[in-house]
Structures are given as C-alpha cells and as structure tokens.
C-alpha cells in the first residue's frame, strides 16, 4: 500500500547575516539560502543548463576517467538494489568527465533518458580550478570537497560520518532528512552490501509502502524537508539520514565534508561490525552485561572512569593521541588474527 503522508516539517533556515563559522557547529540541519549565490558556476547555471555544462567542461580534467553510475530509464533515477538485493539496479562505467558532460547535454531533452550520475567525484582531481573561483571560507577547517553531477537522480536515505555542507550549483534538489534516532523506523538495508558505501533505507520516501514498512510513518513524523535551488546550501550534521532527489534534467552539487575529531580516529562503523561479530549472538543476559561494560568504558566514560589507576599504568584507558591510536590498532589486528 503506497501511502500519502502529511507534509513534513521544513528544515529551519539560517537567519540573515549568520556566520558560517557559527552555523557549521550546528548539531541540527539548517538551510543557508544564497550561500554560494556569488559563484561563477551558479551564474552559469542560471543562464541555463547548457551554459553550466560548458562552464564545467572548460574546467574538467580528462587525465583520468571518472566513475559514472548508469541506470536504465525504468529505474526512475533511483539508485537502489535489484530485486534480489544481492546486486544493484545500475552499473558503473569509467568515462572521462568531459564525455559524461557531453552525454548529459545530449540527453537534456530526452524524457526517457537513462540515469547518468557522477557521484562523489573529488573536486580538485577532476575539476581543477573550480575551487579557485567558487570558494567558501571554512576558516581553520580543511574539508574534503566533492562534486556530484547528473540528470534526474534519487539517492536513498543514508548517513555520513562527517558533517556535510551541500551547495546546489545547478538544478533543483530536494533534501529529506531524518534524525539519527529514527534508524529503527527507516528499515535500513544490509551493512556490507550497499549501493554506494553507506547502508541505505529500503523505504522510498516519495511512495512509502506502509504495509511492508509500517514504522516509517513515525520516521516521517520527524522528517525535515527543503527544496534548494542554485546558490542555496544545507548543513547536514554527522549521522543525520538524508535522501536527496535531483529534480531537473541537469543538476550539480558541491559538498564539503569534515570531522570534528582528529584524522587518526577510527571509523565507528568498524566498532559496530566488531560488535556484530563478538556480541550480538551472546545469550541475552551476557549482552546486558556487555551493555553495562560499554556504557562504563565508552558511552558514559569521563575522568573518573580510570582515576583510580596511576596515570602511567592506564594503557588504552588513557586519552588517545595519534601514537596511542596506532598502538591500539596494532593490538586489535593481533587479536582479530588469532
């Protein structure tokens, strides 16, 4: 049963004059209208999609092929699994960025065009010079910048570990966001077989099947949505689930990822995977004991956790630095290889 749910809340908009330095520390989403309005790339897109394509083509480097995601028209632009859920409804092709742009230009007026999508393409590698004229001042942050180019695409709800500032350059995009605690109502697919590296929600937010996914109505009650045009941006904090629909025949997004923790820290998903291996199938009473253990040493840890141990003897209970993290990583490898 495909259901029409009530209109969700809007993603709050930043007040006029709010500084990016303050906004980037937000732990909830915020739309920043016109943040990139002064970019030459945005000016080109406002003249029309062909002007935007010409602008990008002049900057594109074809020294190395980019990865294009291709799906047949019947996929409806949705990047997803095939019916078996052991594969996907798309294929990857290695093509020069300029060739992909030329193909998108050729298919602009084709209502039955295949989906063509260059996702997570490193900006400085494939479009050197873009950042010189299209800049955002991040102050003391050095984010990873990526560009996303395609026609009408629909990316399922997923989350990213870093904080994310997404800037629309061309076309319109609809962002549908869910708080991290809604994970149980989003019906997340496999952790180890994913369309693009991160686990995704199996629910189509635009046509949810509430017979199959009844708890999604609760997730929808907490959803936040915004439609952004060229020059607009949205801050998506770490671990917020987000589905993104590109609504026009040519769309470009530039996003910036950064973490609030040192680069030497490990990915939390690795700890989750280890937990699946070591804890999930223990008897219930043992899992309960380990929950207390994790609360004590990880989730509720503070200065009192190891205060009774001399500083020189605290080992992995001491605060980490890069050397300490490398040492623990070696210890974990030894334990896992036994």
From TrEMBL:
Coiled coil: none annotated. SUPFAM superfamilies: Clavaminate synthase-like. InterPro entries: Cupin_8, JmjC_dom, RmlC-like_jellyroll. It comes from the Bacteria. Pfam families: Cupin_8. This is Cupin-like domain-containing protein. PROSITE patterns: JMJC. Residues 116-273 form the JmjC domain.
């Amino acid at each position: 049963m495909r259901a029409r749910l009530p209109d969700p809340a809007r993603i709050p908009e930043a007040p006029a004059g709010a500084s990016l330095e303050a906004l980037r520390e937000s732990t909830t989403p915020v739309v920043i209208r016109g943040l990139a309005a002064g970019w030459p790339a945005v000016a080109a897109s406002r003249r029309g999609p062909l002007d935007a394509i010409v602008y990008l083509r002049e900057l594109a480097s074809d020294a190395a092929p980019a990865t294009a995601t291709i799906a047949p028209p019947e996929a409806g632009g949705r990047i997803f699994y095939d019916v078996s859920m052991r594969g996907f409804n798309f294929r990857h092709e290695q093509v020069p960025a300029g060739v992909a742009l030329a193909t998108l230009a050729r298919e602009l007026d084709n209502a039955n065009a295949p989906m063509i999508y260059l996702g997570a393409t490193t900006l400085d590698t494939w479009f050197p010079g873009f950042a010189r004229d299209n800049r955002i001042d991040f102050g003391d942050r050095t984010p990873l910048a990526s560009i996303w180019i395609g026609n009408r695409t629909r990316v399922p709800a997923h989350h990213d570990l870093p904080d994310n500032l997404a800037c629309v350059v061309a076309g319109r995009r609809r962002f549908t966001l869910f708080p991290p605690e809604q994970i149980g109502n989003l019906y997340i697919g496999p952790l180890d077989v994913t369309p693009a590296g991160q686990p995704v929600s199996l629910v189509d937010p635009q046509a949810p099947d509430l017979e199959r996914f009844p708890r999604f109505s609760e997730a929808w009650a907490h959803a936040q949505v915004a439609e952004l045009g060229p020059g607009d941006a949205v801050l998506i904090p770490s671990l917020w689930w987000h589905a993104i629909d590109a609504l026009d025949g040519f769309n470009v997004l530039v996003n910036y990822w950064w973490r609030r923790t040192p680069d030497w820290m490990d990915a939390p998903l690795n700890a989750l995977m280890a937990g699946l291996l070591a804890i999930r199938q223990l008897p219930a009473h043992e899992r309960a004991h380990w929950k207390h253990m994790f609360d004590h040493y990880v989730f509720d840890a503070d200065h009192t956790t190891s205060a009774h141990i001399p500083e020189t003897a605290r080992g992995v209970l001491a605060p980490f630095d890069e050397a300490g993290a490398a040492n623990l990583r070696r210890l974990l490898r030894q334990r896992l290889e036994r």
